[in-house]
Every structure is written in structure tokens, then in C-alpha cells.
Amino acid sequence: MSIPSPILRRLPLGAQWPCIDPFLFCAHHNDAYPAGNGAFGPAASLAGRNLGSDFSGKDGWSMYHGQEVPGFPVHPHRGFETITLVRQGMLDHADSLGAMARFGGGDVQWMTAGSGVQHTEMFPLLHTDRPNPLQLFQIWLNLPARHKMEPAHFTMYWNETIPRLQHSDDAGHATTVTVVAGPLPGADAPLPPPPASWAAQADSDVAVWLISLAPGARWTLPSAVKKEAGRMLYWYVGNGLSLENEQIPAHTAMQLDPSRAIALHNSGTETAELVLLQGRPIAEPVARYGPFVMNTEAEIHQAISDYRRTQFGGWPWAESAPVHGAQPRRFARRPGQTQDELPPAA
């Protein structure tokens, strides 16, 4: 009797990757920005772009909602969390809590929107003498109803502190797994998620892992702890991958059987890059409207009304799309603090 495939279904990646409960959204931004113009924007013509809503990918990059600097000027959120992983380039963050940060190179920001927050995510083009490539993931993780109105919370994970599993197979081929959330045998204990997060609940089985397999590498993805966990594996870089000897023909999103440990093999000549999103479903109704995610339409209407009335605490910055200077240093300034936090020394 043949063993059934561990892949329950395959879905196209697209501009926004398909997600299942408790995750709401995953976007992979991969922009080949040109040299900067000295004012943090591109030293290239913006003619022909729908500025304010440019998702065209023209010439390999977009301005998104930025008018002069690419990115996302001030906008609100309520009822969920954003997990932002910057692999290349820099992101400038500012929010209505008074927090600010410039991060990149593997850093992660985890923001609980909770009852309401405004923030910005700008992509400053700091280099005027060379291109400014940017690659990041933004993941939306839902909040259970009992925590949707918790106060907003800002969390920063520096690349140097994020646990990693370094594995070498019998042939000496390397696999690296970056553990943003969820314990992984062989890696250090994961960093604590924000207190109101679904990932902070003892039985949520939330995992956010970045998996990198060298050419020829073999590694076994352990089974989920909870048999009811939703599990999505996204293959987005590389030219060869097999799961349990089943060759995957093209980059794709795969919903996996959570009860099975699954042998991965990079059968190609290039490094294979994958993302795993896993978690026990919250299993509550979801009502969504733009930047608000609640449980009912009435709660969405209340969120809109509250935002119009309170601006979720107001906007403490002089600009709607602040950029944090010309120095390419990474830092964070937490709410209510006056001193910058820097990454740990190497």
C-alpha cells in the first residue's frame, strides 16, 4: 500500500501568499530598488506610476503608497498582529505609541495592534552610489476575541538574538532554520512573543520558521505538536525540492499534514528557501475591512468609528511618512523612552 502524500493541497504563491487560520496574510516584498536620489527616494523617473498606490512592479520595484519614498505612510490597524521580517535593505518604522525603529538584515518587528495603533513602514533608499535591493516578509497573525482590544504593543527582535538551528546531513550539506516563533528541537528556546499574542498561548503551537537548504541538503521537518494545527510551507527560491521523495515541480504554497514528520530534500543546484507558518486555529468568525480584523461586522463599524473619533491616540510625528536620517544604523526607540536601543555587538 502506498503512503499518501503529506501535501494536502497546493496553491499558487501570487502577490499575497495564501494563509490559513490563525494567519491572515503573508506578503513577500522583493524590490530591486535603484540607487537613491539623496532624499531617500529612487534616482529614477516616477513617470507612469500611479503614485499613492503603485504596486506595478515596474522595472522590478514599486512605490506602494509612498509619494517620494517607497513604503506605507501612516495607516491604522486593529484586532491582529503584524510580524515583519526584513532580510535585505532597511525599513523605517514609526507609530502612535511613540516608538520608532530602523531595522534590516534579518531583524524582526512584531507589533500587536490590539485595540488600535497607527504606524508607518517606509523603505529609505540610503545608498546613492549603488542599488538598494529590499526583501521582506510581512505576516498578519490573528488575535482571539478576548485579546483583540488589548493595548497595542511594540516588540523588536534583533537578528543577532534570533535562535537558529544549524544542521548538517550525512553528506555534509547544510540546513539553517531561523526560529522567529515556536520551539524547534536543536535550536535555542524561542524569543517570547508579545503577551497578548495567540503565539503566547501555551497550546497554540504557533511556529514561524525560515528554512534554507543548501544544494543537496536533506532535513526532516518535525511534526506539529497539535494534530489540529494548520500548517503551510512556502517554497519561493531554488530550482529543486522534494518532500518525502515527491518532486515539487515549481514554487508553490503547500498545506501539509501536521501529524507527519516530512523529509525535505533540495534536489536542485541552488539554495532552496522556504517559510513555514503553523498554528492551531483560533476557530472564531473573522470580519475584515482593510486594516481592521474583528469578529463581527458591528465590531468593524465600531473600529471605523473609534478611529475617526480618537485617531487611536493621535499621530505624534511631524510627517506622515517619517524617515530616520541618512545613517544606515539599526536601532529602536521604544514607547516612552529617550535612548536608542541598538543590536547587540557582534
UniProtKB/TrEMBL annotation:
Signal peptide stretch: none
Domain Pirin N-terminal: 63-141
Stretches for region Disordered: 323-346
InterPro entries (UniProt xref): Pirin, Pirin_C_dom, Pirin_N_dom, RmlC-like_jellyroll, RmlC_Cupin_sf
Pirin C-terminal domain ranges (all copies): 211-313
SUPFAM superfamilies linked: RmlC-like cupins
PANTHER family: PIRIN, PIRIN-RELATED
Family per record: Belongs to the pirin family.
Protein name per its UniProtKB record: Pirin family protein
Organism: Comamonas nitrativorans
